[in-house]
Amino acid sequence: MSRYRKGAGPPSSGTLDREPIALLLRRLYRERVCGILQVKWRGKLKAIEFGEGYPLAVWSNLEAERLDMRLAASGKLRSEDLDEAQRRRHEGGPLLGEVLVALGAMREEELATALQDQADEKILEIFSWEGGQYRFRPGETLRRSTRIAVVSSPAALILRGVSERMPLKQIDDYWDAHGSASLVPARDPHDCFHDVEIDPSSAAMLDACEGGIPIAELGTRPEEERRIVYALIQSGLLGFRSGSDALRPAVASATSPRETAPSPPPQRLERPERREEDARARLTALLKQLEREDPFERLGLSREATAEAIAKARSRLAYETHPDRYAQAPATVQRLAQQAFSQVEATYQALSDPERLAQYRRDPLHDRHQSEALEDARMALEAERCFGQGVRSLNHHQWKPAFQHFRRAVEAYPEEGEYHCYYGWTHYLVHGRGEESLKRAFSLVKKGVKLAPKCAAGWLFLGRLYQMVDRLERAEQMLLRSLQCDPRNIEAMRELRILESRRPKGVRSLLKRVRGLAPGK
Length: 521
Known about the structure:
disordered C terminus
């Protein structure tokens, strides 16, 4: 395991004029520091959390870098979906991204990509600054709920930041300050990124520097090449040699007769297949742990774990799962590492918020219960929408569309008895008076009135169905129940009058009892 030293890299504070962000990222990586790097310039304030030299999370005060602002600017979401997600978010619900997924406005994969782009942008934007100050706070962690997990490696951030964002004047000023030196490949393995991936242009530039390239020549090179060379220097892949050493390999000065560099300790060589197999097994086991519902168990902690213990567990697991450690591994291993790292960061983000931490201490399965409640609410809204469409179709005597709408309402929210009542009645209207059709219709409506005994429409539908099978006395009883639920139910009154007209003379009717229920009596 690599060194774990707090604040051993850069000075406690300084200016980005003298120590640019690219150099700071490299030094933090080299010293394997843990803590927060704060940078500010002209009202902009950002904080990057590091663990073992890797950027783990970032926070920014810029409105334009908020997730909702980026999604709105991208045009990938409907404004109404974003407004609804914001409303739920402000009411004390889950994070914005979780609400968008629950609403079906985004897929999990789209949210993960959006969050990663947001995290990269918050760091890459610093490369465009023309100045600023920084302060390193060793051992501290970000605790704000708006913190965004970073997946990109420091080397990748340096290469992208220099190539895409850094002002060209800063790069050219750097060449002017080192005009008498030459560029050669760096040989010190502790001073470069082992996980950096370079494109063919960068690889060709490294090869060209093997014999030494005078920096004075860079002024005539295209902008793209000047940017590539600067990025390679800040990544530690290129170094300087001046005077008589300018055209020698960079390793020459480290191996003089009087100062022979100590040999590294012998290392046991392993077959690549064995290393990949071990990594896959280790990450698979860790992913199984991280899939547990209890967030404390995911980090290997008890429910009483302190904030400091949570931060330490997160730092340890983030180092073990960071994708950069597996940059040279097969794609399957890289995917496992990415999934595990994302799970670690998501769990820590939840536990680092004091309010959510208190919720998890009371109920470790809070996420599942909240997710179930959100899903239940979503399905209830969908069911009510379908039910409303069904009622409109039924009022226009469109039996088949109404039947389909009521069926979807029942499927979305089967606990609502009124939906079953209307579903059963339209089943009869669509499928006719056949024995099986009536049996099915009775079954659905009876289930509905059992779930919702005060549903006047359900008893009305039962009364009509009993008339279809000539059970008139039973029909009267059902219609009476409908009026007991709703004395203003005109349809039930009409059905009872029809039954009275069909009744043989001399047979006692229930209609007199019913009239006593009418309004104003």
